[in-house]
Every structure is written in C-alpha cells, then in structure tokens.
Amino acid sequence: MIRIGVIGYGYWGPNVVRNVHSLDEGCVDSICDINPAALDRARHAYPAMQLTRDSSELVKSAHIDAIAVATPVWTHFELAKASLENGKHVFVEKPLASTAAQAEELIELAARKNLKIMVDHTFLFTGAVQKIRQLVDEGVLGNLYYYDSTRVNLGLFQHDVNVVWDLAPHDLSIMDYVIQEKPEAIIATGEKHLNGFVDVAFMTVYFPGNIIAHINVNWLSPVKVRTTLIGGEKKMLVWNDLEADEKIKVYDKGVELTNGHGV
Length: 263
What we know:
Blueprint: E1 2-7, H1 13-21, E2 26-32, H2 36-45, E3 50-52, H3 55-59, E4 66-69, H4 73-85, E5 89-93, H5 100-113, E6 117-120, H6 127-137, E7 144-154, H7 163-179, E8 185-192, E9 198-206, E10 212-218, E11 220-232, E12 236-240, E13 248-251
Parallel strand pairs: 1-2, 1-4, 2-3, 4-5, 5-6, 7-10
Antiparallel strand pairs: 7-11, 8-9, 9-10, 11-12, 12-13
Helix pairs in contact: 4-5, 6-7
C-alpha cells in the first residue's frame, strides 16, 4: 500500500485526493493546505483524514511514501525538491516547475535518489487520446503530415505563469505521446495584454519526416475551444474535447497528388 501525502486542496487537490482514495494500491495519509477554509472542506469530505497547514510535516513524515503537489506553480519546485530530498516519490500537477532549468534539476535529483517524479498530464489517460494513439500506431491515418491544436477560453488568468506554461503542457504532452518523434525545432511567439503575462501565444514544432505541429493557446477568446486536427496521407482526424458524444471523428480522406495540376 502506497501512502500519499497531498499538498494543496484548492482547485485540483480534491480531484487528486478523490482518485487516490479510490485506489486499492494506495491511500491518502494526510492533506496539507495553508488555507483554513480548504482544510474545512477536506475535513467535511474526509472526517478521519489527518490535516495540517505545514507542508514539512508531510515531506518529512516517515509514514508517507509519496507526495502529490497540487499548489500554485511558483511553489512546485521547492515542494517537489524538498520531497525528493526527503526520500519521497513525487507527483506534480502540471506544469512541473516555473522554468525549464528547475524542471531539469528536479528530474536529475529524482534520478540520483532513485525516485519517481511524474507530472499529472491527465489527458494522456483519457479514452480519446488513447484511441488517437491506437489509430496512429495501427497506421490508420498513414504517415502523419500535421498536428494542429487549439486550446482557448476567456480566463482563467494565472498570476505566476503565462498562457504557454498554463495551457500548452496539455497539448505538448499529447503531441509528444501521439507523434513519438523528437522535435527538430520549435518556435513560439505571444503577446501580453492584461496582467503582465503573455495571454495569447502560438507555437510551431518541426519534426523529422516533414511533420509540422501548431499549438494555439489563449486566455482572451470569447469562446471556449478544445479542438485538435491530425492530418495523414490516408485519413484525417478531428478531436473536439467539448463534444459530449463522438469526440473523435475520422474522415476517410487523405492527401495525395495524382497529377501535376494538384487535382
């Protein structure tokens, strides 16, 4: 039985606690949050749970095997680092840290300590993404040509990271899982308008074999859009994550040039 301490019971923490609590192989040992109101909610949901406002009680506890971090992004690095240094496996809500350098340091520390560190890329475990990977692996789409993802909405504005750090980890993790090639180059551009952080951004990723990927993330869209298009030589796929039914549609059309006139 893996005993897990959860740090953060605000927006995402309750989901982590609920899912771990339902596992046969694991249990939530303790919950930590600096907000008394959050702990009151946790106490109401789990009356017998150990609660604290001091994260070091979980990090240093001899009764806990792993720490789940579901706190604001700017706190991820220090909490994850302290957990690893105290011999705990670590599960972190995305993004892993505030900078690439911090992320690399955590990965290297986990390797030296022979510990696991994992980012909560939830979409990788959904039926839709698993199906897309299956279709790609089975060659249903043929050789891939492009990956085009749009993830936009009005807010929620973050106050410690920009829109790329907030929303793009979803798309980058899915893209990496589906394409399974190492990118050769990446270009990113964006602008900030409201709170000092970039709130509209576009990313282009180049892969071997002329595969190109485009990711659009935006906190200033009047409508919420969660759509991914994947084009191949045999068929094309559209994934609309906001659809209640038929989230994935495969179009029986590919792209093939049959004569010099492009017909």
